[in-house]
Amino acid sequence: MPLKNLDPFASQLKNLNPGINPYVALMATGIEDGNIPVACGEMLKDFPGKWREKIAGFYKRPAPFKKLVVEIGCHKGHVLCKMAAEHPDTAFIGIDITYKRVVGTAERAQKMGLKNVFTVLANAKAIDMIFTPGEIDGVLIFFPDPWIKKKRQAKNRLVDVEFCKILEPLLSSEAFCWFKTDQKIYFDQAQNAFAENAFQAQTQPCEITGNAYTSIFEQRFTEQNLPTYGSKWLRSSQKFMAN
Ligand SMILES: C[S@@+](CC[C@H](N)C(=O)[O-])C[C@H]1O[C@@H](n2cnc3c(N)ncnc32)[C@H](O)[C@@H]1O
């Protein structure tokens, strides 16, 4: 069940019937008992600007994390948890709009024994309400919903000029943004949106972008011999590398 409300601070649990969606119940009790790394609704108000400390606190880590990477549309957390396992000193946040995927990602992280993963139930269109300027060191946007069935749906695509405009100031000076899609038309739209907002193409992969990190959707397209497109960007004065 996807979120309807664009306001990330709106109550996401109170008016829902946990009998209909078991993930609502899992999320509500997990959050109340403080034993699931998930944030949503009103509690999120306390997180912007403090994510590194909050995630460290949840896992009883003595010092805050130095870096913070965010995956938008984390699905069930395959890529996020793999990265998190390989980079234990970086905090990873997965954002998604469905209860099932957010809880599923948190559960995957817990099963893997990870101590650096948190998930957020929210629409990433409101990302500037969830993070403060300069707070994010890396963003992954892998295979966002392409909205290609009807021409008028194109306006629903997440990555456009407006979105890149609100994303850019949230990134630290060294931050990367890694985008992948199976739709050439979306790829071109995103390329223009990043370029128009002073993102620079990345020429030297960093520790994370230097790895393949194949997502579930990417795997599905590759298995069907369908093309995929990817680009890696940096905030301001750095350079680009296309896959
Ligand atoms: C096509 S799937 C791709 C999943 C995964 N990134 C991959 O590559 O395998 C898109 C994901 O983005 C989530 N999503 C769609 N719109 C979103 C939004 N506005 N904010 C956050 N997540 C969103 C969906 O729920 C879904 O999990």
Question: What does this 3D model show about the protein?
Answer:
By secondary structure, the protein is α/β, with parallel strands linked by helices. It has a single domain, classed as 3-Layer(aba) Sandwich (Rossmann fold). The protein has 8 helices and 9 strands. Strands 1, 2, 3, 4, 5, 6, 7, 8 and 9 form a 9-stranded mixed sheet that branches. Helix 6 packs across helix 7 (184-196). The protein is globular.
Q: Short description, anyone?
A:
This protein is an alpha/beta fold and 243 residues long. The protein has one domain: 3-Layer(aba) Sandwich (Rossmann fold). It has helices at 22-33, 51-58, 78-86, 99-111, 127-130, 161-167, 184-196, 216-223; strands at residues 38-40, 67-72, 90-96, 117-121, 136-142, 171-181, 199-201, 229-235, 241-242.
Note the topology:
Layout lengths: L21 H12 L4 E3 L10 H8 L8 E6 L5 H9 L3 E7 L2 H13 L5 E5 L5 H4 L5 E7 L18 H7 L3 E11 L2 H13 L2 E3 L14 H8 L5 E7 L5 E2 L1
Parallel strand pairs: 1-4, 2-3, 2-5, 3-4, 5-6
Antiparallel strand pairs: 6-8, 7-8, 8-9
Helix pairs in contact: 6-7
Bound molecules: S-adenosylmethionine.
The site of S-adenosylmethionine (SAM) has 20 residues, from strand 3 and helix 8.
